[in-house]
DNA sequence: GCCGTTTTCGGCCCGACTGTTTTCAGTCG
């Protein structure tokens, strides 16, 4: 088994143990181990070979043994035995709001059912409300939960939740008494998808804030309301939580609500080690007394001898250690972006002319644009024949001439990587482009081995500057094709080929976790909007968020370089430097 | 199941809210 498969197996063990009513700390140990394995830099097979698996933080003797078996044999009797004891359908039930391991287990044991359909039927037949610890209300919450689960798997893309969050924020900010307010949660951490939206407000008078929030026309249903906290489901799908606290507690609440959960646990453990208790109200000496005063989040981190940690990094993937050493990177930001590469035009499947795309870039303050229409194999997307390419280049020359050097359009191409790893034009023709993005658009069903060697072969072509959307995933819609992404990213770094962070909200591919590991090994990236219209250029913002999550600095992003430097780099690659 | 500048055993982050209770377990973030 490879790293991801081992992580999935450990995570499954944790969940199955939870459903068996095991010690919650034991189940958490499996969840932690899964995370550690998934995000580790080292080669897992090598660690197994050298019997060093237990050198990983959070992995001891017992877990090391199980991991070793998974890697070597591809199976683990312990997991197989667990599966026979816990029906797999129950794993699905856990994703229904309000159902945790205890209740899932109770329903399963009392009614002898284990599939989503059976659970739905049992609710319709009123068979849950009479169980111990259940009632009419808990039964009534399950059916809508099943509907939501079936409709959208309960997660939403960045643009959806960001827009909704901004609207909610705009709603509560003007309420009298509100001192400050922010979006928190995974939206603030810029994860690729979110389950819900978190809003935190500082005010001495929560009631009118809660009213404004709950009465919003965005709200479908109010699912909970206490004195300081209100939970709703929005008409657009996601749920949203509001928390109102006093101004003194506000930074602590913002930090707590921003998460991630794992980051919070690590922070609270660190506080504990320093004789302090960290919660959403303050940082309190264990022997009692008032909270240490902290005016903002930076002060909280400072009180624990840590540099300020940007929200995107709060995933408990090494950020505390780096903050403690003072070695956190200065993350790339929207204002660092100098231009955009990988955009389409009406020459292939875009909806705007090259001139209009260039104008849209200038309006956004960019100084260059890489036009990368599809190559001939992408016939479904109007891919360009060599003759059309030559025509397009004439148009770009004309436009550049008219622009008089105030803005530059690069002659790029998004060239298909063919099934055998060759590119879609002959080498001598490739030399005509300023910039080449190579992407897979077909035959997603190759074996991992074949897909990997196909892409590796393309990376060997000296004309390839950037690898496009390296896994082909469509978030919430299509899984990545099977590929040894680590090997691909490593090879790209070695050959000085950049791997794009495709900024389209449905892609966000390269994944930020893999980006972080690649960057540590010398990888360069480009934050590419893959825009098919002027509005699509704005997707760069989402890509920047993902790059930040990957610990990426401006120095590591091709399109955060000024034109001249980018051109020199491209030229040097052509010359084999 | 992991871990140790208090510990090799006894801890493991912490609080709001709900629903079902009659003082609290379960869920959630």
Structure description:
With 577 residues, the chain is of the alpha/beta class. The chain has four domains: 3-149, DNA polymerase beta, N-terminal domain-like (DNA polymerase, domain 1, Orthogonal Bundle), CATH 1.10.150; 156-247, Beta Polymerase, domain 2 (2-Layer Sandwich); 251-325, Beta Polymerase, domain 3; 334-574, Metal-dependent hydrolases (TIM Barrel, Alpha-Beta Barrel). It has 24 helices and 16 strands. Strands 10-11-12-13-14-15-16 form a seven-stranded parallel β-sheet, covered by helices on one side. Strand 14, helix 21 (485-494) and strand 15 form a beta-alpha-beta unit. Helix 20 packs parallel to helix 21 (485-494) and helix 22 crosses helix 23. The longest helix has 18 residues, at 386-403. The protein is globular and about 75 Å long. The chain binds one DNA strand of 29 nucleotides through residues 23-30, 32-33, 57-63, 97-103, 132-135, 137-138, 185, 196, 198, 224-229, 231, 241, 243, 256-257, 259-261, 264-269, 271-273, 277-281.
């Amino acid at each position: 088994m490879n790293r991801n498969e081992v992580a999935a197996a450990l995570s499954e063990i944790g969940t199955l143990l939870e459903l068996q009513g095991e010690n919650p700390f034991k189940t958490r140990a499996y969840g932690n181990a899964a995370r550690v394995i998934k995000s580790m830099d080292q080669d897992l097979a090598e660690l197994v070979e050298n019997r060093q698996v237990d050198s990983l933080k959070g992995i001891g003797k017992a877990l090391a043994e199980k991991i070793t078996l998974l890697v070597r044999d591809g199976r683990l009797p312990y997991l197989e035995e667990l599966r026979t004891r816990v029906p797999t359908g129950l794993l699905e039930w856990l994703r229904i709001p309000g159902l945790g391991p205890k209740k899932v287990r109770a329903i399963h044991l009392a009614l002898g059912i284990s599939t989503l359909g059976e659970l739905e039927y049992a609710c319709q037949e009123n068979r849950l409300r009479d169980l111990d610890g259940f009632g009419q209300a808990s039964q009534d919450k399950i059916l809508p939960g099943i509907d939501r689960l079936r409709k959208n798997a309960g997660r939403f893309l960045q643009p959806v939740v960001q827009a909704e969050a901004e609207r909610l924020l705009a709603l509560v900010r003007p309420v009298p008494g509100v001192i400050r307010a922010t979006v928190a949660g995974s939206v603030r951490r810029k994860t690729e998808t979110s389950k819900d939206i978190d809003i935190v407000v500082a005010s001495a008078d929560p009631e009118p804030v809660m009213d404004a929030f709950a009465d919003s026309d965005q709200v479908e249903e109010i699912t909970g309301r206490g004195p300081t906290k209100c939970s709703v489901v929005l008409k657009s799908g996601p749920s949203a939580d509001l928390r109102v606290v006093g101004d003194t507690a506000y930074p602590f609440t913002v930090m707590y609500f921003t998460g991630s959960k794992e980051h919070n646990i690590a922070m609270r453990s660190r506080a504990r080690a320093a004789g302090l208790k960290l919660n959403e109200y303050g940082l309190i000496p264990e022997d009692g007394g008032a909270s240490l005063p902290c005016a903002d989040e930076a002060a909280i981190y400072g009180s624990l001898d840590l540099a300020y940690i940007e929200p995107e990094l709060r995933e408990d993937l090494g950020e505390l250690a780096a903050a403690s050493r003072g070695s956190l990177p200065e993350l790339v930001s929207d204002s660092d972006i100098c231009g955009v590469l990988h955009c389409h035009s009406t020459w292939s499947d875009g909806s705007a002319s090259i001139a209009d795309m260039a104008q849209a870039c200038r309006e956004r303050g960019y100084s260059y644009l890489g036009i990368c229409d599809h190559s001939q194999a992408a016939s479904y997307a109007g891919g360009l024949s060599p003759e059309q390419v030559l025509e397009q280049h004439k148009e770009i020359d004309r436009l550049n001439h008219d622009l008089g050097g105030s803005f530059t359009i690069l002659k790029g191409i998004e060239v298909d990587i063919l099934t055998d790893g060759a590119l879609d034009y002959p080498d001598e023709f490739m030399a005509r482009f300023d910039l080449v993005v190579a992407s897979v658009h077909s035959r997603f069903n190759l074996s991992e081995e074949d897909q990997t060697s196909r892409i590796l072969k393309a990376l060997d072509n000296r004309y390839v500057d950037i690898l496009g959307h390296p896994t082909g995933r469509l978030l919430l819609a299509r899984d990545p094709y099977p590929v040894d992404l680590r090997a691909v990213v490593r090879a790209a770094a070695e050959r000085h080929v950049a791997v794009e962070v495709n900024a389209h909200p449905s892609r966000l591919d390269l994944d930020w976790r893999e980006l972080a590991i690649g960057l540590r090994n010398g990888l360069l990236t480009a934050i590419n909007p893959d825009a098919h219209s002027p509005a699509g250029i704005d997707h760069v913002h989402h890509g920047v968020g993902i790059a930040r999550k990957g610990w990426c600095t401006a120095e590591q992003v091709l399109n955060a370089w000024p034109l001249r430097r980018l051109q020199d780099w491209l030229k040097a690659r052509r010359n084999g430097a």
